[in-house]
Design goal:
The protein is of the alpha/beta class. The protein is about 35% helix and about 20% strand. The model has no long low-confidence stretch (mean pLDDT about 95). Bound molecules: NADP nicotinamide-adenine-dinucleotide phosphate. NADP nicotinamide-adenine-dinucleotide phosphate binds next to helix 1.
Length: about 475
């Protein structure tokens, strides 16, 4: 076992929505990988819950089909022996007493209730967990996004869950925070003397955060059309990334030390509302185009009802009103059907104050620190160096490149692997506290209100392009460009 694989106490992990896409595609594979690494204690149980009438063997077969492939069949069999299934309807009483007895049969186990269902069911599920006293002792609840669609609905969910589970038992998951690169951001900023003295408005020109997907809305249309890119990506994942870049050094990695600092950033975000949303935000919606070499339909056609006012793309300029970041723009951009699948944070430093090189040496470019979250997690620091050889002093802009997979010779674990075990350990550092979710909605709500009040439709963009031209104009107006790592 590697030193990072600390043992965990025996646990029962109950996945509500155990037959759903997230559970089958992400959570169970993550648990299987931890099992293969010897991190799942032998008496631990993983229990899938959904309404579908399956027994334990039926559920195991369903998982076997989705997990098999490159995995060792003997290990898969052994893992599946720790997996069980109960058919329950979150909204009906039937079956809950038996389920409660099953859980109470292991009173010493840590209990994790993972709510991988639509959020409308969170309230019913938690109420029943409370009714059967399954919230007592070392019990934890994990909530998937979206936590509400605005501040009011987020409060409703948090209040209802909070009636059953204490905040210290509540883990609001944002899988971006489990990514290796995000934690490396902490290591880079606070484990090296090099960056922190420069990490402020005096030396940083701007920050860009891009989360680009090549996929369209696919089978998630019903959910997505009610959400849109601002709610689905910006309010949670991208603001969390922004906080990790912008927060003050916490006094330690204690959960509340980190989360207090993130909260201060959220509170310091300048308001975007109907007075400035037209200048600071761009909404887009993809139309038919070519993505990954194939012709694809536009968003309204993919939805099947031909018309929608939901944005599949957002670009915006955020600002943090505090001493460290005054005047430093944070450009955020996310969308579906963009040319590349890439998530990255770019910290662009100010140019040197004076060039000593003559024009024949070539232009001086900004230093940039590029933190890539996907694909190929890693860090690049773009530097100016002299082109090697005797041909005169010519400047080149090249990256110090640290791809984690190459540097450490291993494929990085999926974010869910780390986060699931953090829940079992009871470590909430990488999870969102209630006040963070509320502060993020307090910032997002006026943007949504401004868009609704404007009555403007999202700007169309061709699938396979980088969004509407207005998104390019948003950053170019300030004399800057979106990062293109191909240079
Ligand atoms: P999904 O594929 O639609 O799965 C929903 C699950 O809930 C199914 O197992 C379903 O099974 C179960 N379910 C529905 N009604 C139920 C009820 N009344 N009682 C008990 N179980 C019930 O959804 P998903 O894509 O896995 O997403 C789950 C949650 O995670 C959503 O909140 C989603 O927004 C969030 N999320 C998903 C992803 C992703 O990649 N999929 C990513 C981030 C967040 P039965 O119909 O048999 O009951």
């Amino acid at each position: 076992m590697s030193p990072s694989s600390l043992p965990v106490d025996p646990f029962d992990l109950v996945i509500f929505g155990g037959t759903g896409d997230l559970a089958v595609r992400k959570l169970l594979p993550a648990l299987f990988h931890r099992f293969v690494d010897g991190q799942i204690p032998a008496s631990s149980r993983i229990i899938g819950i959904a309404r579908e009438a399956l027994d334990d063997d039926g559920y195991r077969e369903l998982l076997r089909t989705s997990l098999s492939g490159t995995v060792d069949a003997t290990q898969l069999d052994a893992f599946l022996q720790q997996v069980a299934y109960r058919s329950l309807d979150a909204r009906k009483d039937e079956g809950w007493a038996d389920f409660a007895a099953l859980i109470k049969a292991q009173p010493d186990h840590v209990r994790v209730f993972y709510l991988s269902t639509s959020p409308e069911l969170f309230v019913d599920i938690c109420a029943r967990l409370g009714q059967y006293e399954l919230n007592k002792g070392a019990s934890r609840v994990v909530m998937e996004k979206p936590i509400g669609r605005d501040l009011a609905s987020a409060n409703q969910i948090n209040d209802a869950v909070g009636r059953v589970f204490d905040e210290s038992q509540t883990f609001r998951i944002d899988h971006y925070l489990g990514k290796e690169t995000v934690q490396n951001l902490l290591a880079l900023r606070f484990g090296n003397a090099l960056f922190e003295p420069l990490w402020n408005a005096g030396h940083i020109d701007h920050v860009q955060i891009t989360v680009a997907e090549t996929l369209g809305v696919g089978h998630r249309g019903a959910y997505y059309d009610r959400a849109g890119a601002l709610r689905d990506m910006v309010q949670n994942h991208m603001l969390q990334l922004l906080c990790m870049v912008a927060m003050e050094p916490p006094s330690s990695l204690a959960p509340d030390a980190v989360r207090d600092e993130k909260l201060k950033v959220l509170h310091s975000l300048k308001t975007i509302d109907d007075s400035n949303a037209a200048q600071l935000t761009v909404r887009g919606q993809y139309r038919a185009g070519v993505a990954e070499g194939a012709s694809v339909p536009g968003y309204p056609d993919e939805l099947g009802h031909g018309k929608s006012n939901t944005e599949t793309f957002v670009a915006l300029k955020a600002e943090i009103a505090n001493w460290r970041w005054a005047g430093v723009p944070f450009y955020l951009r996310t969308g579906k059907r963009l040319p590349n699948r890439v998530s990255e944070i770019v910290v662009a430093f100010k140019p040197v104050p004076h060039s000593i090189f003559d024009s024949a040496a070539g232009p001086l470019a900004q230093n940039r620190l590029v933190l890539r979250l996907q694909p190929d997690e890693g860090v690049k620091l773009w530097l100016t160096i002299k082109h090697p050889g005797p041909g005169g002093l010519r400047l080149r802009h090249v990256p110090l490149d640290m791809s984690f997979a190459e540097a450490f010779g291993v494929q990085q674990p999926d974010a869910y692997e780390r986060l699931l075990l953090d829940v079992v350990r009871g470590n909430p550092t990488l999870f969102m506290r209630r006040d963070e979710v509320e502060a993020a909605w307090r910032w997002a709500d006026p943007i949504l209100a401004a868009w609704a009040a404007s009555g403007e439709a999202p700007r169309p963009y061709a699938a396979g392009s980088w969004g509407p031209s207005a998104a390019v104009a948003l950053i170019e107006r300030d004399g800057r460009t979106w990062n293109d790592d191909s240079e």
